[in-house]
């Protein structure tokens, strides 16, 4: 019988996913939420320890003496600066300097890297590897991955791992063992909180899951689906491909494409690095001439929104989860941009959104209005442009 | 400006005092908060009574903390996290003993659970919730208005009265009728019109008597029920929550926000008297002899201390003093905080293992099997006794915030009513033990292993609330939420806009409009009125 593709954690997650809330992710079936409501899972990320199956991330091993050259050619960051045991977040572009995808690159040793991406990248990497001494292997199925996020995640890892993770800095990784099983632990995540990602051989997935769940029960460990993570990542100002930007490989028309500058990823574009990389000339030009767009945060002004609802006799109603629909952003009667993901932030008690804004409306403090639907009518709620992230606890990087 | 000269002096470092101070500092004012204890927070404090176990000593849940305060003061940046309490479990009594009634943060789930007990109630519940929500919504704008004084000819009062009148006009006859009933009925009468399941009526009735010295059959209690409903319609949605770190987490975040705004906090600074010169408040004298000066003095203490203790009564009109003397502040509840080596297992829904994923323990557990149960508990209290079988509202803070107890261990926060302030023979250690024993033996009926889980216990009587938190009478709302003590009658008719008969002296606490419940509204609204007066 035909079966949907499941992850190595399915045997555990499927028993816990009481509402049968499943989502597609890169061809895999993953848990959307373990409860009917997202509160408990969302708060596990922000308050205790959230265990999230992120196996569907595309994963590639890149090895060989030219591995670093290949990556330097493909991505926008300077890979010569990536030390062994360090992780970079980066985007990569086409030759027009528009984003193809984004992900992380971990340097496991001198000549070995692990790259994650949202979309399949084997072909693009291979095309750029012509003439280089490098081997690229996809390990998406072979490597299972757990994202372990929240202020208590470190305490739980210290209980199960052979070596303490206390010294593990933000965007660094370490080789470790859990119950004698080798794992790689990186101080990374998609929530903007203290958190780790644990990389293991797929055959060890259940053992590691059980060890974490057992050790974590005194620390509020909670299996969490991707819907709660979606709320947290908006608060953290992190965006998602095909939701917040369109990959050049999927864009139908030019305006759908975004450059890293337009996404606010200036800090990942190393124009000072040696040699050519894909998109360099276009990015240099954009750096010189300035960007037409920028992704920023929007905070809807609650009292103004409340007024709109009040005028029809209703209390404010906004979705209790992240909404992945485009919402026009106005100044006066002119549309100056659009919000790509909006969500209620249970922590900040604010309605927030990631928004693409045109120059000059992307300056912090600009007053704009974002579309909301009030009793079947399109209205525009007052909102303010703010810098990302919306939320950054001090312990994220400590 | 000399060191002891301020734009505003706030007496009392409870959450309302801190909120008021923060709002004033935000407007650029030099503010000092005077707290008599060694810590701020008032009745919203968390203390480690036994090493490793953190007790949210007095108040323990938040639902009404105003979202605009959270946003205005950027409290999440200062550490505030309000974690959801997803459910309430009521273990059943009588013939249904061994079963439970659960209510969830999901309406349909709750309805299905009710259906298990009574299909009729399940359907009534569908109607009841929107009726109450609409009534709460109808009353909410009134809460946001500065209450008008109906006997005043001051343009502002007339205008506000007009606004309330206009607003009332905009309500349908049915809505007005519902509201009229809600403010006059007893919660028992109201609930009996709707439901038949005892545990449901008991649990709902319980929320109508919290903080009052009334029983579910006393008229006026239906309003309190609505007052508690208010949180459900405010700034998105979830009802009761537990602040990370307990209620001290709420005060702590407001404190941090206030400090960041430049507010000076003085602890161990007991106020002796408000200094009055030429008929207006001009400062505060402390017990330690220090004098602080300001043209604005706000009290965030309870009404009796504010008007009868801090200021000589000759500065107030006689009828005002009488009204304050008559203001009812009868404490009726206590608090038992328990350190647990493990979770007590309830027979109605037992867990296996350590119970780390027990749904029951993640929410509230209410010992309120029927209206009669609670009314009987009140009967004891009416005649000056501790309820033999009290109403209990329990939560396990460590299940929501694991940092509240050592790993794998727990704390139990148990609100208990009735424990009358005016106990026959007075409160002493023996009576306190009696209260603790009443609580434990009550829990034991539903969770037989409770005793062997106990590592330590703190019993707080209304007398203790008075002594520790400084609330006269030990009433958790600084004054009962009775019909004659709310809205334009709180605390005293004519003096409801946070001003007092003494010029420069303001009152912004739970005993003022719109009342208590870790709302912060009184502090915020008072600060806004102070800024409006601009006495600088």
Explain what the structure shows.
The complex is a heterodimer of chains A (398) and B (536). Chain A is α+β, with helices and mostly antiparallel strands and 398 residues long. Chain A has three domains: 5-57 and 140-224, 2-Layer Sandwich (Gyrase A, domain 2); 59-139 and 259-289, Aminomethyltransferase beta-barrel domains (Alpha-Beta Plaits); 293-386, Elongation Factor Tu (Ef-tu), domain 3, CATH 2.40.30. Chain A has helices at residues 10-16, 39-47, 67-74, 122-128, 153-160, 205-216, 226-235, 280-289, 302-310; strands at residues 5-6, 21-25, 28-33, 49-53, 58-63, 87-93, 99-109, 112-117, 135-138, 143-149, 173-178, 181-186, 195-201, 221-223, 293-300, 327-331, 334-345, 350-358, 367-374, 377-386. Chain A starts with a strand and ends in a 12-residue tail after the last strand. In chain B, a hairpin with an 8-residue loop joins strand 6 and strand 7. With 536 residues, chain B is of the alpha/beta class. Chain B has helices at 15-26, 67-72, 107-117, 119-144, 155-170, 173-184, 187-194, 198-209, 221-229, 247-260, 303-309, 318-326, 359-362, 371-382, 397-400, 429-446, 450-453, 462-469, 521-533; strands at residues 8-11, 31-34, 46-50, 53-56, 82-84, 87-91, 100-104, 241-243, 264-266, 271-277, 280-286, 291-293, 297-299, 333-340, 364-367, 391-395, 410-417, 454-460, 505-507. Chain B has a domain at 8-42 and 64-80 and 244-328 and 473-533: FAD/NAD(P)-binding domain. Chain A binds chain B through residues 36-37, 39-40, 43, 46-48, 152, 155, 217-220, 302-303, 315-316, 318, 320, 344, 346-350, 391, and chain B through 67-68, 70-71, 76, 81, 83-84, 86, 105-106, 109, 137, 233, 235-238, 244, 354, 356-357, 362, 401-403, 407-408.
């Amino acid at each position: 019988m035909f079966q949907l593709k499941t992850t190595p954690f399915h045997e555990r997650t499927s028993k816990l996913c009481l509402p049968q809330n499943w989502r597609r992710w890169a061809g895999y079936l993953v848990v959307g939420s373990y409860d009917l409501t997202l509160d408990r899972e969302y708060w596990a990320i922000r308050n205790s320890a959230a265990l999230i199956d992120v196996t569907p991330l595309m994963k590639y091993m890149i090895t060989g003496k030219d591995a670093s050259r290949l990556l330097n050619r493909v991505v926008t960051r300077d890979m010569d600066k990536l030390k062994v045991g360090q992780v970079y977040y980066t985007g990569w572009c086409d030759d027009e300097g528009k984003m193809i995808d984004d992900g992380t690159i971990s340097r496991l040793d001198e000549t070995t890297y692990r790259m994650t991406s949202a979309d399949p990248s084997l072909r693009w990497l291979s095309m750029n590897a012509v003439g280089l001494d490098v081997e690229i292997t996809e390990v998406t199925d072979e490597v299972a991955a757990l994202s372990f996020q929240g202020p208590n995640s470190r305490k739980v890892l210290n209980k199960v791992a052979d070596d303490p993770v206390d010294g593990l800095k933000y965007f660094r990784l370490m080789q470790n063992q859990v119950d004698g099983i080798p794992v790689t632990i990186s101080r990374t995540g998609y929530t903007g909180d203290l958190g780790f990602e644990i990389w293991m051989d797929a055959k060890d997935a259940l053992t590691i899951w059980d060890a974490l769940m057992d050790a974590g029960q005194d620390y509020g460990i909670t299996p969490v689906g991707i819907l709660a993570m979606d709320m947290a990542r908006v608060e953290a100002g992190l965006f998602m491909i095909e939701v917040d930007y369109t990959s050049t490989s999927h864009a139908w028309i030019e305006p759908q494409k975004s450059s890293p500058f337009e996404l606010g990823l200036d800090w990942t574009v190393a124009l000072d690095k040696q040699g050519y990389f894909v998109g360099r000339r276009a990015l240099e030009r954009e750096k010189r001439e300035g960007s037409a767009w920028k992704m920023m945060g929007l905070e809807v002004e609650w009292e103004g929104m409340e007024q709109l609802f009040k005028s029809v006799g209703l209390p404010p109603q906004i979705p209790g989860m992240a909404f992945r629909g485009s919402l026009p952003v106005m100044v006066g009667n002119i549309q100056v941009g659009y919000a790509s993901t909006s969500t209620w932030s249970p922590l900040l008690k604010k309605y927030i959104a990631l928004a693409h804004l045109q120059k000059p409306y992307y300056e912090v403090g600009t007053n704009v209005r974002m579309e909301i639907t009030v009793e079947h009518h399109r209205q525009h709620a007052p909102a303010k442009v703010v810098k990302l992230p919306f939320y950054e606890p001090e312990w994220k990087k400590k | 400006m000399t060191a002891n000269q301020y734009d505003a002096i706030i007496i009392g470092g409870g959450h309302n005092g801190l909120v008021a101070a923060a709002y004033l500092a935000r407007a650029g004012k030099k503010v000092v908060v005077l707290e008599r204890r060694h810590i701020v927070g008032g009745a919203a404090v968390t203390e480690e009574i036994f090493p490793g176990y953190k007790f949210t000593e007095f108040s323990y849940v938040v639902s009404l903390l105003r979202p605009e305060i959270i946003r205005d003061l950027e409290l999440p940046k200062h550490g505030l996290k309000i974690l959801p309490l997803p459910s309430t479990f009521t273990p059943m009594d009588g013939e249904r003993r061994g079963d439970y009634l659960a209510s969830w943060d999901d309406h349909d789930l709750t309805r299905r659970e009710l259906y298990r007990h009574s299909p009729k109630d399940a359907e009534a519940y569908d109607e009841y919730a929107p009726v109450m929500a609409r009534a709460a919504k109808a009353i909410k704008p009134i809460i946001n208005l500065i209450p008008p004084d109906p006997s005043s000819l001051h343009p502002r009062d007339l205008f506000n009265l007009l606004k309330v009148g206009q607003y009332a006009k905009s309500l349908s006859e049915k809505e007005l009728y519902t509201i009229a009933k809600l403010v006059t009925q007893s919660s028992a009468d109201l609930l009996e019109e709707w439901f038949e399941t005892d545990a449901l009526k008991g649990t709902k009735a319980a929320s109508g008597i919290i903080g009052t010295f009334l029983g579910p059959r006393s008229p006026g209690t239906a309003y309190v029920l609505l007052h508690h409903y208010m949180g459900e319609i405010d700034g998105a949605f979830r009802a009761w929550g537990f602040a990370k770190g307990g209620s001290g987490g709420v005060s702590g975040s407001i404190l941090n926000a206030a400090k960041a705004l430049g507010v000076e906090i003085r602890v161990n600074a007991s106020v002796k008297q408000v200094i009055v010169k030429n008929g207006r408040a001009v400062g505060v004298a402390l017990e330690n002899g220090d004098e602080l000066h300001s043209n604005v003095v706000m009290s965030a203490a309870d009404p009796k201390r504010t008007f009868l203790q801090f200021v000589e009564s000759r500065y107030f009109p006689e009828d005002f003093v009488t009204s304050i003397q008559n203001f009812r502040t009868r404490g009726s509840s206590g608090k038992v905080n328990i350190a647990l080596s493990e979770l007590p297992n309830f027979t109605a829904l037992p867990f296996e293992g350590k119970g780390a994923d027990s749904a029951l323990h993640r929410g509230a557990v209410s010992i309120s099997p029927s209206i009669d149960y609670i009314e009987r508990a009140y009967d004891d209290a009416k005649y000056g006794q501790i309820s033999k079988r009290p109403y209990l509202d329990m939560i396990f803070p460590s299940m929501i915030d694991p940092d509240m107890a050592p790993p794998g261990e727990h704390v139990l926060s148990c609100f208990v009513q009735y424990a009358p302030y005016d106990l026959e023979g007075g409160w002493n250690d023996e009576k306190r033990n009696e209260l603790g024993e009443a609580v434990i033996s009550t829990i034991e009926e539903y969770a037989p292993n409770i005793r062997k889980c106990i590592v330590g216990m703190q019993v707080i009587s209304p007398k203790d609330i008075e002594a520790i938190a400084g609330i006269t009478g030990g009433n958790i709302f600084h004054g009962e939420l009775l019909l004659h003590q709310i809205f334009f009658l709180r605390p005293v008719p004519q003096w409801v806009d946070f001003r007092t008969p003494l010029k420069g002296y303001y009152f912004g606490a739970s005993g003022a409009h719109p009342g208590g419940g870790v709302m912060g509204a009184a502090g915020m609204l008072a600060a806004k009125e102070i800024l409006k007066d601009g006495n600088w």
